[in-house]
Amino acid sequence: KQKDLLKIIKDASYYLSKISEKQNRFKNAYQYHIIYQEAKDSLLNAEKIKILEETEAKYNLEKLEYEKLKVENAALTAEKQIAKQKIFIGLLGIVLVIGGAFFGRYFYKKQKEKKEEKEKSVILKRRIDLLNNQLSAKNRELTSKALLISNNNRVLEEAVESIEQYLSSANSDKKELRKLKSRLQNIYEEESWADFVKHFEDVHPNFYKNITEKYPNLSAGELKICAFLKMNLNTKEISQVTNQTIKSIEVARTRIRKNLALTTAKV
C-alpha cells in the first residue's frame, strides 16, 4: 500500500510539474519536481523515507527545543531588565528626593537672601532719603544763614552810618568812636563768617581744606565767593549777601577763574 501511494504521488507530481512548467509557474514546477524525485527515490529505497522522516522529526524536535531555550532566555533577559529598571527607578527616586531637598533648600535660601536684600534696599533708600532731607535742610539752613548775614550786614551798615553821622556833627571824642566803629565791624564780620563756615562745612566737608591745598593763592575774600558759588548762588545773590556791588563780584569771579586756570565761565 505504501508503494502504491508513493507511485501515485510520483506520477501526480510529475504531471503537475509539467503542467506548471507549461503555465510558466516555474516555482511550483520545481516544487513538484522535487516531490516527484523524492517519491521516485522512495520507491527505490523505502528505508530512505524512514531516515528522512526520522531526520525531519529530529530537526523539528531540535527546533522546538531551540525555540523553548530562546523563550526561556528572553524571559530571563526580561526579568534582568525589569530588575535593572527597578534599581534604576529606586536610585532615581533617591536622587530626586535628595535633589528636591537640595533645590528646595537652595530656593528657600535664595528667597530669604532676596527678601533680606529687598529689606536692606528699603532701609538704604530710607537712609538716603533721610540724608537727602537732612542735606536739603542743611542747605536751607545755610542759605538762611547767608541771608541772615546779609541782613545783619545791612543793620551793621546802618549802625556804622549812624556813627558816621554822629562823628560829623558831635563834639565828643571822635577817635574813640572810630575805634568803636572799627571794632564793631571786625567782631561782627568775624563771628558771622565763623558761624557760616561751621554750617557750610557740615554740608560740604573738607571744601576749604581741598581748595586751599589745590589753590593756595586764593585770598580770603575769593574763598568766600567760592563758598557762595558752591551753594549755587548767582552774582546778584552774592552781591546782596556780601554787601558788595555786582561789578565787584564780577571782577572777583574773573580773578578766581584766572587763579583756577579755567577757560569757561564755570566760576
Automatic annotation (TrEMBL):
InterPro entries: Sig_transdc_resp-reg_C-effctor. The chain crosses the membrane at residues 87-108. Residues 52-86, 163-190 form a coiled coil. Keywords: Coiled coil, Membrane, Transmembrane, Transmembrane helix. GO terms for molecular function: DNA binding. GO terms for biological process: regulation of DNA-templated transcription. The keyword tRNA-binding does not apply. This is HTH luxR-type domain-containing protein.
